[in-house]
Design goal:
By secondary structure, this protein is of the alpha+beta class. The protein contains eleven helices and 13 strands.
């Protein structure tokens, strides 16, 4: 963190961070504590620190496949300008991202392909950078979100952050065929309809070009469910699962995957046994992020339908009240942000005391709470 700050990354703190839900500013909580910088700065720092390790060597090439010896992966093939290289190794990690071809490589070695689960979201976003005035005394970070029921058309949300080199990074997201702001004039016009921090951010000179991106669907490759898997191989990050970027869980998930890998390897496992323990640890992380991101997307797309079981009905009732109370109740908001930041599991939001607090904050009587959520819970 100190290295990032020294290079211009911004640490706004709770008092200079703002979140807006359906146009209403969410209450401030102490757990809004994060470092803000551009992705190139973050990746550059990780790259530098990784290459500083004495046992790390960087090679450049395009991976084309794996080499198997019985049940083991023993080498990786990659192509360079000079031709194909076969690189042997003791352990292999696929971190090639959403476009990973691991399923193809497994199939080529007569291993089963993982099932891929998809949820179409078709979210598109545009990012732009602007000069930042040193005299601005308002928020240095802002996030704007809309609930599935909010009448916001196809507009998905927005984010604004102070970053290094005295710049603002502003992101506008939309769904489907909602017109994207692909030029400076329309980008500023859309920001003019948002909160003051967005209006401030686009006052300065546009730096560089607007950068559009499309995320067609959420994907989850179920490696943990495979009945056969080669040894000395794991898959991490978006090569396993990728989520709607509006919810900001991609990097958090990848970091937790790395923590799972660390726990697995520090346990000194038998590498000639498939890494099922790692994949089980990782599955907990992926399932949590998948639940958080796809629940809202499914509701927006009208895919949730009527809850099939009593438990699902109670869960849906609880989450409606948690999300509503998180706007104005600090304790509920803190718990909700812990889950959003992936420092707590989504199941923590269903704790009876928290749901009861949320329901009361929303004006629900204890009698209704008992009837709808906790008939066996003492609310005295």
């Amino acid at each position: 963190m100190r290295q990032a700050e020294a290079r211009g990354a911004v640490l706004p703190g709770p008092d200079r961070s703002a979140s807006y839900v359906d146009g209403v500013q969410q209450v401030t909580t102490p757990n809004v504590d994060f470092l803000i910088c551009t992705r190139p700065l973050l990746e550059g720092l990780i790259h530098e620190r990784t290459l500083d390790l004495p046992n790390v060597e960087l090679v450049a090439g395009r991976v084309t496949g794996l080499v198997f010896d019985g049940q083991r992966v023993v080498a990786v093939r990659y192509s360079t300008e000079a031709g194909e290289v076969v690189q042997a190794g003791d352990f292999f990690v696929d971190a090639t991202g959403r476009g990973s071809r691991m399923a193809d490589w497994l199939e080529a070695g007569e291993w089963p392909r993982p099932r891929m689960e998809r949820l179409s979201v078709d979210v598109r976003y545009v990012t732009a950078h602007f000069e930042r005035s040193p005299h601005w005394a308002g928020p240095l970070s802002g996030i704007t979100r809309y609930s599935p029921r909010f009448a916001s058309g196809r507009f998905a949300g927005a984010a604004v952050n102070a970053v290094e080199d005295q710049r603002w990074a502003v992101m506008l997201a939309s769904y489907g065929d909602d017109p994207q702001a692909l030029d400076a004039e329309s980008f500023r016009a859309r920001c003019a309809e948002l909160q003051p921090v967005y209006q401030e951010a686009v006052k300065g000179r546009l730096i560089g070009e607007l950068a559009p991106f499309r995320h067609p669907d959420n994907r989850w490759r179920h490696f943990a469910a495979l009945d056969r898997f080669p040894t000395r191989l794991v898959v991490t990050g978006e090569a396993v699962a990728s989520f709607n970027p509006v919810y900001g869980q991609g990097m958090s998930s990848a970091m937790l995957h790395a923590s799972c890998l660390s726990e697995y390897l520090c346990g000194e496992p038998d590498l000639d046994i498939p890494a099922r323990h790692f994949f089980e640890l990782q599955r907990v992380v992926v399932a949590a992020a998948w639940q958080t991101s796809t629940t809202a997307d499914a509701a927006r797309l009208g895919l949730t339908g009527r809850p099939a079981t009593e438990r699902q009905r109670r869960t849906a009732w609880a989450m409606r009240h948690i999300m509503a109370a998180a706007v104005h109740d600090s304790q509920v908001a803190e718990a909700f942000r812990d889950v959003s930041f992936m420092v707590a599991h989504p199941a923590t939001l269903l704790a009876p005391d928290l749901v009861r607090r949320a329901a009361r904050a929303n004006g629900v009587s204890d009698e209704e709470f008992i009837r709808e959520y906790g008939p066996a819970i003492d609310v005295a």
